[in-house]
Each structure stands twice: as C-alpha cells, then as structure tokens.
C-alpha cells in the first residue's frame, strides 16, 4: 500500500527568485525517518500555438543549467496571484507578439515530482493574431514557425529535449 | 540571436542526497548581470514496460513535494558511475520484479531546464520476464498493469500528471 509521509520537521535552506529549497524530515510507517529535499516553484505555463498554416511556434532559448540552447514552446512562470490563463496570454504576447483568439487548457502536469512541486499548465492556442511586437527586453530568444512533419522528425531525432515541449506537442497532436 | 550566459561567479548553497543547489551570477551581452538558481541532479531513467498482453506497467507512488500519490512509469535515479541502461535494468527489477528481454533507449529529455539540469532517459522494455520479486524495502509503491485504452482515457482525464510518464507513454505509443 502507498502510505503518506508525515512531516516531522521542515528546514528552510534557501529562498530565491525562481525557486526556494527546504528539507523536510518525514516519518514513514514501518520505515522510520527520512529526509526529503524539496524545491518549491510557483508554477508555469507552456503554450502550443498553432498558426493558420498548421505551423507550431517554437523558441530557441539558452538554458544556463545545461549550458545549451534548447527548442521550446513559448512558456513562462506564473506571477504572484496570476491565474494560468492570464499568464499564457501574457507570455505568448511577450515572447512571440501573438494573441490567441482561442486558448484552451489541455493538460497540467508536474515536471519533477521526486524533488519539486513545479506544475506546468499546457494551453493550446489557435486563431492567432500577430500584434505589435513588444518583446520583453529580458528575453534572449529566437522565434520559429515549423510544420508538424518537421517537428515530428525533430522529435524522432531527439532534437527536442525539453519535457514540457515534448509533452505539449504530443498531447496537442492528438487534438489537431 | 540567442547569446550564451557567461558565468562570473558561482555560489554553492546546498549539497544534498538527491539534489544540490548553486547560484551563478552570469553576464549577458547588452543586458548586464543576472542570477541563475541551478538545481543539480545526477539524472534518472524511466521505463515504459509493455507486457505480452500489451499492457503497460504503472506505479502508484507518494510524492512528498506534492503531498499526493501519482501514477508513474517505473523510474529511478542514476547511481554514481552507473550508465542509464544498467540503471533501467536495476530499477525495473527493483520496482516491479520484471526483467526485459528487450530494452531500448527511445528518448532523453530535460524535465525543468529553466532551473535544473535533471536529464531523464526513457527506455522501452518488452519481452518481459517476471523473476523473483526482491523489492527494495525503501520503496513504498503499488504496481498495476493497464491496457493502452485505459491509459489513454486516464491521460484525457488528466489523471496522469507526471511529465516523464506522459512523455514516455506518448512517445512509446508511436512505436508499438
């Protein structure tokens, strides 16, 4: 049976801008005490944005933890008090200049449930309208529009290496 | 253009059992200095194990960061010096009792590239043989075998909420 883990104590190790870290001591029935390292994250959204020509918008972005540029769907962190849909509208606009006539939540998932509470909301965006591009000056990205066939090939070649992007595209493919 | 971020300094905040945390100060061309919070992780594997009857093995596991039981594929962390395939063989055996006659790497991805270097290797395991069950006493899990139709329905209802499980199953579905 899956038993829950009772928190005995909780130590805050670090409070940061994107993440915070705490270490909990838990008690597990018949197994005694263990430590759980927990990275707290405020949640994020990812947007599978599909153009009239059935192209998907992808972004190239440098990711410091990997020292590598990754292909990703437009995405971003929830601001304090912001709901996921508002966040998706804002991030799509900031990163790509597009607004979506139709924006639908298609899934929610946890990226690393073993050590983090990060939750990502995936939206499908269609009926796109390109507005005035007011890019966020903090962003350091390149924007592409790619056909589904090309993206399938990139997935097969393992050129798409970001979990939310893979999951978002694979889920969206079943809906479009 | 996507420019890289040059590390100016790096502060180690925490060194733990599953993760460690460092904060880098980076210099970005035309943008000045920024902080990057980076959760270091040694990598992990996930196994989409498919029985002769085309059922997929899923596990129910309590995840402390979410205070919730999740449906997941068998998975586990790489031990020091262990290669991903060895890890997949070990974890499948420890968590389910099965050995795979056929074990194939189908994808590698990063779960949270914004703040962590965690990389997951997904294996497709077929030709399963149930051996003597030597379950790891540290594991607190329930094991299920579910048909693809039932799993599809669970995905549609958002009952599968773990990124590696969603990605692994969606990728495997295209291969089986």
How much helical structure, as a percent, in the residues of chain A? 10-25%
Strands ordered across the widest β-sheet of chain A: 7-4-9-8
Protein structure class of chain A: alpha+beta
Per the principal axes of the C-alpha atoms, what is the gross shape of chain A? elongated
DSSP helical segment count of chain A: 3
Total strands of chain A: 10
Q: Averaging pLDDT over every residue of chain A, what do you get? A: 94
How big a fraction of the residues of chain A is strand? over 45%
Oligomer: homodimer
Task: Give a nutshell description of this structure.
With 176 residues, chain A is an alpha+beta fold. Chain A contains three helices and ten strands; from the N terminus they run E-E-E-E-E-E-E-H-E-E-E-H-H. In chain A, the strands form three sheets. In chain A, strands 7-4-9-8 form a four-stranded mixed β-sheet, sandwiched between helices. In chain A, strands 1-2-3 form a three-stranded antiparallel β-sheet, with no helix packed on it. A three-stranded antiparallel β-sheet of chain A has the order 6-5-10.
């Amino acid at each position: 049976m899956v038993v829950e883990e009772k928190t005995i104590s909780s130590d805050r190790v670090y409070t940061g801008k994107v993440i915070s870290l705490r270490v909990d001591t838990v008690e597990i029935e018949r197994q005694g005490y263990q430590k759980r390292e927990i990275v707290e994250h405020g949640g994020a959204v990812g947007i599978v944005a599909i153009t009239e020509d059935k192209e998907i918008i992808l972004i190239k972005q440098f990711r410091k933890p990997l020292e590598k540029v990754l292909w990703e769907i437009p995405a971003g962190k929830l601001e304090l008090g912001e709901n996921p849909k508002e966040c998706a509208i804002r991030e799509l606009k900031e990163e790509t200049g597009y607004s979506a006539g139709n924006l639908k939540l298609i899934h929610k998932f946890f990226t690393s449930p073993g050590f983090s509470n990060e939750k990502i909301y995936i939206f499908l965006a269609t009926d796109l309208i390109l507005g005035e591009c007011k890019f966020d000056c903090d962003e350091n990205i390149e924007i592409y529009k790619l056909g589904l066939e090309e993206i399938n090939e990139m997935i097969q070649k393992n050129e798409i290496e970001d979990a939310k992007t893979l999951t978002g595209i694979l889920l969206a493919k079943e809906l479009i």
